[in-house]
Amino acid sequence: MSPQSKTGRAPGAGPELLAPAGGPEAAHAALRYGADAVYIGLSR
């Protein structure tokens, strides 16, 4: 079994694409078009 980071990716696997998303539709689109992860900010 190969070592993995907390993200489940093998070390040296290359950069991870993280995309901002303004809402659920944007998050789904980012993942559909190749983002490995998305981040969404919440209003207070």
Q: What does this protein structure show overall?
A:
With 44 residues, this protein is of the alpha+beta class. It has a domain at 17-44. It has one helix spanning 24-32, and strands at 18-20, 37-39. The chain has a two-stranded parallel ribbon with strand order 1-2. The radius of gyration is 13 Å and the shape is elongated. The model has no long low-confidence stretch (mean pLDDT 79).
Key phrases:
single chain, 44 residues, alpha+beta, two-stranded parallel sheet, 1 helix, 2 strands, elongated
Brief overview, please?
The chain has one helix spanning 24-32; strands at residues 18-20, 37-39.
Unreliable stretches covering 5 or more consecutive residues: none
Strand fraction? 5-15%
- Average pLDDT rating: 79
The H/E string reads: EHE
Helical percentage = 10-25%
Beginning-to-end CA distance, first to last residue: 43 Å
Total of helices: 1
Oligomer: single chain
Number of strands: 2
Rg over alpha carbons:
13 Å
Structural category is alpha+beta
Question: In terms of topology, how is this protein built?
Answer:
Blueprint: E1 18-20, H1 24-32, E2 37-39
Parallel strand pairs: 1-2
